[in-house]
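To fix ideas, we reproduce below one chain and its tokenised fold.
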Amino acid sequence: MTLLCFVPSFMNLRYRLGIMCKDPGEISFGNRRVEGLQAGKYIEYWCYDSYNLIGSVRIKCLETGEWSASKPKCKRTY
């Protein structure tokens, strides 16, 4: 008799385990698009006209439950 075992991929396993990152929040003078808060998902940030983004445009939720970077800030241009 042969036994077969199914070993799920790490990607499927991390979603089943429910690894999530805490919502880092919105930014002043800008906006964001949230793909999701689960491991492997991204948040993209951008600033309104007359503001420059300081930091990462795109941050990723890591398997550790932490974001790849802090949320960015928008600084007024003069």
In short: The mean pLDDT is 87. DSSP finds one helix and five strands in the chain.
